[in-house]
Structure formats: C-alpha cells, structure tokens
Design brief:
The chain is α+β, with helices and mostly antiparallel strands and 757 residues long. 17% of the residues lie in helices and 34% in strands. The chain is built from 13 helices and 46 strands. It has an 8-stranded mixed beta sheet with strand order 39-40-42-41-43-44-45-46, sandwiched between helices. Strands 1, 2, 3, 4 and 5 form a 5-stranded mixed beta sheet that branches. The two termini are 49 Å apart.
C-alpha cells in the first residue's frame, strides 16, 4: 500500500508543478510591475488584504462575526459582523474608540498571549453566548459585552489588574474571568461579581492553564462551565515544585531578573489538581486523578447533559492517555478508555460527546489518525474513518443525520499533504468520505452546531485568504471577506513579479517528502542562482502547501534567490511512522532529509552549488545550526533565530514527548547538542534571539556565543531587547528582514565572494 501512495502523490504533484510552471511563465510575460520592498511589506495596510480572523457564526445562524485588522494599523484588530442574508459588514467593537490609549499588559497576560501566538492588540478574541444575545470581548485587559440587538457595548470591568480568559456561561446568565490568580463570576442580571476562589496568590493559581499546558498541550484555559451552568470545573496549579530558572529580561531601558518557574526536561512539573465547584451549594470537590500526581491534565469536557465530566489524563512519559468519566457531585472517576504508544500518544481536540451519551474520539492505532465512535462506557462501536491518510480535525457533527465533518489532506482515500479539504463521513456506518469543499488549495472550516452550514476559509497559490459562509452542501451563501486580488487589492502592484512555486517529491527511507521551489523574476534556466533553503523541520504542521505565499518570500526572490522548502520526516500531520521517525533522536533524521534536499538542489543545472544558505526560527533555528555544522550539507551560510541548542534546557512536555528524559536518553541529547558540532561549520552564521524570550530562553544562544568566541570562530549576531520568542511589530520586523537580506547578500548574493568567481 505504501508504494501506491508514493506513486499517487508523486504523479499528482508533478501535474500541479506543470500547471504552476505554466502560470509562472505567464507571469514572466506580463509587464514588469513594482518591485516589492521590505519597507512596503512591513507597513499598513497588510499586503494580504482584508483577511478575516476568528470567524464564527452566531448560534441562531443569522450573523457572522470576525476580527479584522485596522487599515491605519495592521497590528490592531476590531470586531466586525455581517448579516447572513445580506447587507454590508459593520463594526461591532472599535478597539481604538473604547480604549484609545492601550496601556501595558500584565506579565501574566503577556505570557498568555505569547503562548497563544497572539501578536496583535485591540480585540484579539471573543465569544458568543449559546443564545447569540451577546458577544464577549476582552480588550486590553478589561471585559466588554456587546449586545446583539442594538449593538450597545457594555463595559464590565475597569480595574488595575488584567481580566483574562473571559467566557460567557452557556445560557448567557453569567460572565467569568480570572483576575489576580482567582476565578470570578459576574451575574449579568444583578450586575455584581462573585468570587469563586479567593486564595490564588504567589505560587497558587486557580482556573488558568499552566505554562506547559499553554505552550505545549494546546490548552489555553483552566476552567469549564457545565451546560446547565450549575458546575464549573477548574484547575488549581501549585508551582512550588518547579525549578526557578533566573532569566534576564533585557529591554532598551535596562534589565530585570525574572525568577521564572520553568520545568526543564527531566525536572519536576507544577502540581495540577482538578476541582468541581457547585454553584448551587457552593461546595467544591476534588476530582480523583489517580495515585500518581506526576501526570498531565490534558483535556476536560462535559457530557451534553452535564451529568459527566470527561477528563483526559496523560502519563508523564506521554505513552498512555486515559479517558476518565467523573461524577461532578463527588469527584469520583473511572477510566473508560486508554490509548497507548511505544513513542507518544498525540493530543487532539477530536473528542466530541453526543446527545445520546455516545462520543467520538480519534486514535492512531491503525498507523494513521482516524475517528472512532464509542459507547457511553468506552466500548468501541465502529470506525468512522479509515484509510491511508490522517484526520487533521473533527470540525462538526449533525446528530440528527449522523453526518460527521472533518478536515484531511487526502485525495481518493490516499494522503495528499500539500492540500486540505473538508469531508463528510457518518456515525451510522463506515463509509467512503464525501468531499464537501472543492479540490485544490487549502481549506479550513468551522461547522455550526447543527451541522447544516460552515464558515469556510480558503487559499491557494493565486488566491489570498478568503472567508465565506456556505451551506453544508458547499453552496456559498455569502462572502465574509472575498479579498479579491484585483486593482483595489494592496498586493496588486506586485502581482506581475510574483513567482508561482513548483512542487515535487523526494523519497527517504520509504517515505515521500514534499518540497516547493520558487524562482526569481526573469528566471533563466541557462544561468545559475543562489538558493535560500527555508526550514522548520520540527513536529508541527508542514509548510509546503498549495496556499498563498508569504510576501517575505517575494523579498527573497526579488533579491535574486531561489527559495526552497522541504518538509522532512517528523514534520506535519501525517502517518504515525512519518512523525515518529525523530523519536529519541531529534536533529538526526531531519538533517538526513535536508542533506537529501541539498543534494537534489545541486543536481539542478541552474543552482550554484557554492551559494546555498538555510534560514529558520525556533525549531528551524535549531535545524539551521545543525545543517551549517553538517559537512554533507556544504552550506555557505545559515540564519538561526531563537534556536534550542541543547534540549535539556527546554521544557518537559515538548522535549520528553520526542526525546524522553536526559537520564533515560543521554545519547540522543548529546547528539542533538549544537556545541560539539561548531568546529564543523561550513559557512558563515547569523544568530538572532529576543532578549526577553521566556520560551526558548536566551541561555540557548548565549552558550553558543560563548562557545564560538572561545574557539575564535567568526560569526554575526543580532539581539532584540524586550522581544520574546517572536519579533513583534512592523518596525522591528522591517529591521529583521533588512538584516536578513544584508547578510544573505554578503554571503551568497551579489556581494558574496562566490558571486565574483
């Protein structure tokens, strides 16, 4: 079966590449347009056009809400809405009007937004109540409530402290939030607050996801309302067990020592307990999480009738994931289902309780992630999906018809990693999935509660991100943000010089690796060109996609570089085998595959063998360092941003998932340490890091700086005071890319020694 997958993927990609080449030729024949500059990329309005973010359909299906960046400041978002049955979009919450002078966020909120990868200001998240009467929007640390009828906006808080993780209760009677490490509930009818907890202070925090959950487990909340509003499940976190890692937070105005509680690989985690608060009696019971406290609270969900609390408990080694059914009145629990793996069991958001007590959950027991239907007691009823592809998300269920909606990168039952669609399967039988969205490009979708409509987000190589409301049969009801690429679009002046990527595949250890390549304007295959290899390489969604490309890619092609990206083994939501290739040996199979890519590039007559560079951030920064110190890569230069350089310095959940602990896997940790490899650098290095990074802490880079200097090895560095794991804001983004382009020009570009040969 694996052989047929390879043939299918390769042939389809060749066809897509041919089409892309034809489109590229047409673009080259067009009249030359404006040359894209870094100054234009990092200014307003955004070159991506008016992209709708956080799109959701009101519970009654009459209104669609979404976030949109302001035209005068791309970094600030307002909340907009548009009627389903017609009419123009209108602004529900104007961030600047409500809070003209946004102040400094608290450290807790800064950290939370960093974990959620939120870089914008203004309205960054919102929530409907289940009746659709209200939209709740936290704004710059305070809480605002927009009324659906009339559009009045009510300010619920105006305090010195930040209110975070705000929610509307299921029936819309209450609003809840966390303030100063305690949970607060606000009675909308009475207009008063009620403290659910009062002892949150110091190392004790209520109702907030701990660092590990936010950063590595994709769990951003620490409390959950029951459907009938009687109960609130909430976690209590005690960080007293976590090591203090002193961290210098260096800004332009000086330095502060932060005594950060950071759980490094092999070291103790925070103690996390789960409680259930009964609003009727005021009583709080502790959930029985078992005898071993060294576990992870992975997921929490309520049954539809509110009589059962479902808890996913993950073992410290992440090889066992238990689903527990909890009695909310007593806290007593029992394990009803268990998933295991010899590597790791991945966490998802694919658990879905059904009105009749059954539930849907996903598993990789077949070697691919698929959906399964279970009885109330955890007994398997049937597979919902099967095949040589991975289900990437459970997007909706229609309990009346039995329709189940999911996203996958699949064509005709076989994986097709560069595209993504919405599909329909069935609770009632294991059937061949039906395509809901058309083939081609990259779809994501949010299906309404009834399973009768969805908000679809679409993009492809020629189409900037679009959003529309669709009936479940795929008929478009209306545009939310068409974002048409025409004369009025911000990117239009640069269209004729945009080069369309081509796609292809390479084979590695029985796996098919996908790649994409973009050539410069006026590309002449009889000449030779320098190449910039872009890399992430780590365990997350792959970057090779039939989707709208970042405008920064065009900065590279305008500078005369071929831009190339390969998704190596371990990268992307593919088979368990593909992902687990890096287990216990991060930095080894990934680099082996990147060597394969470099050799492929050198086999092309139009690639200059001596002018190949690599660039990446975070895991990509680690990969850039590993590649520059791998002689078989033969790189002329590398740009490494915020790299983990020794995995023993990184956090527990992420690192131990892939590498176990330093005590149990000393060989793997030693092989992935960058320092012993530095003598093997084949080219020049630019090292970058934010000087307030609380994720990949700055020590990862300072140890490399020290090692390079002690060895008298020349290198370049650029540090960003006050910046965390990402470089935020147009001004610093512009500086970052000016630095990139200058370094590349001097090492592999027009000013490089090799270009003069």
């Amino acid at each position: 079966m694996r052989t047929s997958i390879v043939r299918h993927s390769a042939s389809a990609l060749v066809l897509l590449s041919a089409a892309a080449l034809a489109g590229q030729a047409l673009a080259q024949e067009a009249d030359p347009g404006a040359i894209l500059t870094p100054e234009r990329v990092f200014s307003s309005p955004s070159l991506n056009g008016p992209v709708a973010r956080g799109v959701s359909l009101s519970p009654d299906g009459e209104l669609v809400a979404f976030l949109r960046s302001r035209e005068d400041d791309v970094n600030v978002q307002d909340l907009w809405a548009v009627p389903v049955e017609g009419g123009e979009p209108f602004k529900l919450i104007d961030a600047r009007a409500l809070v003209p002078d946004a102040g400094e966020l608290s450290e807790a909120e800064k950290a939370r937004r960093e974990r959620m990868r939120i870089s914008a200001r203004g309205v960054v998240e919102y929530a409907w109540d289940q009746q659709g009467r209200y939209i709740l929007a936290p704004l710059e640390g305070d809480i605002f409530l927009a009324e659906r009828d009339g559009g009045a906006v009510r300010r619920l808080t105006e305090t010195e402290a930040d209110e975070i993780d705000a929610k509307v209760s299921p029936d819309g009677n209450y609003v809840s939030w966390v303030r100063d490490q305690d949970l607060v509930v606000y009675d909308l009818a009475a207009g008063r607050e009620m403290a659910i907890t009062t002892d949150g202070d110091g190392l004790i925090t209520w109702a907030t996801a701990e660092f590990i959950a936010q950063e590595e487990m994709d769990r951003d909340t620490g409390y959950w309302w029951s459907p009938d509003e009687r109960y609130i499940a909430l976690q209590r976190t005690d960080e007293s067990t976590v090591d203090i890692v002193p961290r210098l937070d260096i800004s332009g105005g000086g330095a502060t020592v932060v005594e950060q509680r950071y759980p490094r690989a092999g070291r103790p985690n925070a103690l996390v307990d789960l409680y259930v608060h009964d609003r009727t009696t005021g009583r709080r019971v502790k959930v029985d999480m078992g005898d071993n406290p060294d576990v992870y609270l992975a997921r929490v969900a309520w049954s539809v009738d509110g009589q059962t609390l479902y808890v996913q408990r993950e073992s410290r080694d992440q090889q066992t994931l238990d689903l527990m059914a909890v009695d909310p009145a007593t806290g007593q629990s029992r394990v009803i289902l268990t998933q295991t793996s010899e590597a790791w069991v991945g966490l998802t958001h694919n658990f879905r309780p059904l009105p009749d007590g059954r539930f849907i959950w996903s598993s990789e027991e077949s070697g691919w992630r698929h959906l399964y239907l279970y009885g109330r007691d955890g007994t398997l009823i049937r597979p919902i999906t099967t095949g040589n592809y991975a289900v990437k998300g459970l997007d909706g269920v229609n309990p009346e018809t039995g329709d189940v909606f999911f996203t996958a990168s699949m064509r005709d039952g076989e994986e097709y990693p560069i595209e993504q669609q919405l599909f329909r399967a069935s609770l009632n039988d294991t059937v061949t999935p039906v395509e809901v969205t058309p083939r081609g490009g990259w779809w994501s979708a949010s299906v309404n509660a009834k399973g009768t409509a969805y908000v679809g987000n679409y993009t492809d190589l020629e189409t900037p991100p679009q959003s529309a409301l669709y009936r479940i049969d795929g008929t478009r009801v209306r545009w939310i943000e068409e974002n048409r690429l025409d004369e009025d679009h911000p990117f239009w002046p640069y269209v004729s010089r945009r080069q369309t990527p081509t796609f292809g595949t390479l084979e590695s250890h029985g796996e098919t690796l996908v790649w994409q390549m973009t050539t410069p304007p006026g590309f002449d295959p009889s000449k030779t060109y320098p190449v910039v290899m872009q890399v992430y390489g780590g365990p997350s969604g792959g970057g090779v996609r039939n989707a709208w490309q970042s405008s920064t890619n065009q900065l590279l092609t305008e500078a005369g570089y071929i831009v190339f990206r390969l998704d190596n083994r371990g990268e992307g939501e593919r088979s368990a085998r593909f992902k687990q290739a890096l287990y216990l040996k991060m930095g080894q199979p990934e680099i082996e595959d990147q060597v394969l890519a470099a050799n492929y590039l050198r086999s092309l007559s139009y690639v200059d063998d001596d002018r190949i560079a690599i660039m990446g951030w975070s895991y990509g920064g680690f990969m850039s360092l590993m590649a520059l110190t791998e002689p078989e890569m033969g790189l002329a230069a590398a740009i490494s941003g915020a790299p983990p350089t020794e995995w023993g310095l990184y956090d527990t959940h992420y690192t131990e998932r892939y590498m176990s602990t330093p005590e149990l896997n000393p060989e793997g940790y030693a092989a992935s340490d960058v320092i012993p490899r530095l003598e093997n650098m084949t080219g020049r290095l630019l090292l970058m890091h934010g000087m307030a990074d609380d994720n990949v802490i700055f020590e990862n880079t300072t140890r490399v700086l020290d090692a390079l200097q002690s060895r008298s090895l020349p290198f370049e560095t650029m540090l960003y005071p006050g910046q965390r794991h990402g470089i935020r804001g147009n001004e610093r983004g512009l500086h970052q890319w000016r630095t990139y382009l200058d370094f590349l020009d001097r090492t592999i570009g027009s000013r490089s020694p090799a270009s003069q040969d």
